[in-house]
Write a structure and sequence with these properties.
315 residues, alpha/beta, TIM Barrel, eight-stranded parallel β-barrel, two-stranded antiparallel ribbon, 11 helices
Amino acid sequence: MPLGLGLAAIGRPDYINIRNQTKIDKSQKAFETNAFAMLDEAYTLGIRFFDTAPSYGMGEKYLLKWHTQRAHKDVHLSTKWGYTYMANWKIGYRGKHEIKEHSLAKLQEQWSHSKALLPALALYQIHSATFDSKVLNNTAVLEELYRLKKEHVINLGITSSGIHQAALLKTASEIHLYHEPLFDSFQVTYNLFEQSTHNVLRQLLKAGKQVIIKEAMANGRVFPNQQFPNYQKTYQILTKLAHKYHVGMDAIALRFVLDYVKPSLVLSGASNLQQLRENSKVNSFTLNQSELNTLSSLNKNSAHYWSERNALQWN
């Protein structure tokens, strides 16, 4: 199945997805119960790729506990390093929920915990690599990643966000150590509104690299919301297509990415069972070329997209 499950909204009580006002139990016990239910349902639906990170609150711990108890032999786990979760489960935390640090010390610290996911750990990624963090120029970090890759037979990747995604992907794809490419996988923000990496993603896929799409629903902005009157045309188009294919607007947004980019995987960011089941309907239909052309025309200016995203509140 080309659908994977990301645990960003499952492992911590606050996240930047636009959510409805329905109150939920935000205790750690309730979140663990929900996480296990989500992981079990995802497996039942045919999902075999699960993506987490230390900064996803308890996400990595939930995934490890679930995997240890279920002992499925056919799952592929993925995690990252480079961000530290700071909110410590404080609801409405006013500080930075995540702090980035792409140092060798942070890599070694987080690997000491993440390695417990072995041997099911298939992919280890730099979390939100950027030019500013200079991680792609840090020889000590790159050498350590190469060592981990060879010693544990895992793939290496980067995740990306921001207006410089395309250039960053190209730079990372050209990094070689000991006459071989260092990175095998590229996890990218791509959706109806942010398509700036389209050409480079096609090149990566042609070169045999793994391409994983995250935030395919633009943190909830693909759903009708009065905060975004500039997306009314988008909502009308998505509503029409959802009615045609008897699915939700979420499935249309996911299907667009699958049919237009043809990535290796697209991640569901579902936080509850209903959302996950609705997302899984992406496998029940395909979009025709005319529909893909219409949806691709909804692309927005990248700078505007990221400015708008950065203004979203944790909730």
